[in-house]
Specification:
Largest sheet: 8 strands, mixed
Helix content: 25-40%
Shape: globular
Number of strands: 14
Strand content: 15-25%
Radius of gyration: 22 Å
Order of helices and strands: HEEEEEHEEHHHEHEHEEEEHEH
Length: 380
């Protein structure tokens, strides 16, 4: 039997609990089953030892979310960008439901990964390469408060981040706390992703692949590596443009295989990246904005393993990607990839920056652009 003091204590705890819950925007999510596992690990000698001791490296954490009612034949595999983890897709920094929940509500199974050597995918000292991270000003100026810094012309159009986007704002602080050190070398990351997520694809079968930012090049790599297991690629502002960095100095050469750091299959075949002959596309080049657009000199080699994979590139109105994503799309199309480019402002979705899926209208993008694409390409 409860005493009056016990009841007071229970009521106080309930009030405290509901206060904590109401401090975030809590919405009812989709009933689902959650599991996690690891894939892709390799064993090496423990650094500094010669006694047979071994450690695992290269593995990825995989979170598998299964709604109570699965109505879609293909799962969605989501890969996050640089400095991030798979938590990007679970919910937003201000507590709203994220894309994982939205697509579960539509009947999709979801797989979310942490890239190798990142987050819940262990980085092994002495085995994995050097790491770097983003400081708070970088995150604000490039992602969450771009309108305050105006580093590119479209930045002034940004309106959709839920908060002021700078340190001290609770939404920003929650988001920034989630960022992680990442491997410095995109080449090393690409090699490890190809191995680990290639193994994941072998294990789980065909998927709808959704990439963001840095992981955009993994879409081209994985599509080339396992073309029969990727039924569509949805690339949210994929890393680019071809062959060179843009907008932010230093504007150094990058992605020597066009859109990737590691080889992909071209026809006619190439023996090295030097076999690709870039030429400038004047109409998509703007030196004042730090963008030089390259395509292949004609006749363009074809990305043959991507030619049967319908591809969607999505670009927001106020992101720096608005400057050079058209160049990335031009390169894909010239190489024979069936690519469609949706610029969100053109379909009436305005004010987004690079982290579009976390922003106030993120579910509108999921519904009107991504889901519609899936329905019209995969489910037709």
């Amino acid at each position: 039997m409860f005493t009056s003091l016990s009841v007071v204590r229970i009521l106080t705890l309930f009030q405290l609990s509901t206060t904590c819950i109401s401090s975030h925007t809590q919405l009812q999510g989709t009933l689902h089953r959650r599991n996690y596992f690891y894939v892709g690990e390799q064993y090496v000698n423990t650094p500094g030892t010669n006694n047979g001791s071994e450690i695992a490296f290269g593995q990825i954490y995989v979170e598998h979310l299964v709604p109570a009612t699965v109505t879609q034949s293909l799962p969605v595999l989501m890969i996050h960008g640089h400095g991030m983890t798979g938590t990007n897709f679970l919910n937003t920094p201000d507590g709203r439901l994220g894309w994982a929940d939205y697509f579960m509500n539509q009947g999709f199974e979801i797989y979310i990964v942490d890239q190798p050597s990142r987050g819940r995918s262990a980085w092994q000292i002495g085995v994995d390469g050097n790491q770097s991270d983003f400081d708070a000003t970088y995150i604000s100026s490039h992602f969450t408060a771009v309108e305050k810094f105006n580093l590119w012309p479209q930045a002034a159009l940004h309106t959709q981040w839920p908060g002021n986007g700078t340190a001290g704002d609770p939404v920003f602080d929650n988001f920034y706390a989630s960022t992680m050190p990442s491997l410095v070398s995109d080449k090393e990351s690409s090699i490890k992703v190809k191995k680990a997520i290639g193994k994941l694809l072998d294990d789980i079968g065909p998927v709808i692949l959704l990439t963001h930012s840095q992981s955009g090049q993994y879409g081209w790599i994985l599509g080339d590596f396992r073309p029969s297991l990727i039924k569509t690629i949805i690339a949210l502002e994929p890393i680019g443009p071809p062959f060179i960095n843009a907008v932010f100095p230093p504007l150094t050469p990058a992605r020597p295989f066009g859109l990737t750091e590691i080889p992909v299959t071209y026809s006619p075949p190439i023996s090295s990246s030097s076999d690709l002959k870039p030429e400038i596309v004047p109409a998509l080049t703007n030196a004042s904005l730090g963008t030089t657009c390259f395509r292949q000199a004609a006749p363009a080699r074809q990305l043959v393993n991507l030619k049967e994979i319908p591809t969607l590139v999505v670009t927001s109105e106020s992101s720096y990607h608005a400057i050079y994503d058209p160049c990335t799309v031009e390169y894909l199309a010239q190489a024979g990839v069936p690519v469609t480019h949706v610029e969100l402002a053109d379909v009436g979705i305005k004010g987004n920056a690079h982290m579009m899926f976390m922003e106030k209208n993120g579910l509108e993008i999921a519904e009107k652009v991504v889901l519609e694409w899936i329905q019209n390409t995969v489910n037709k």
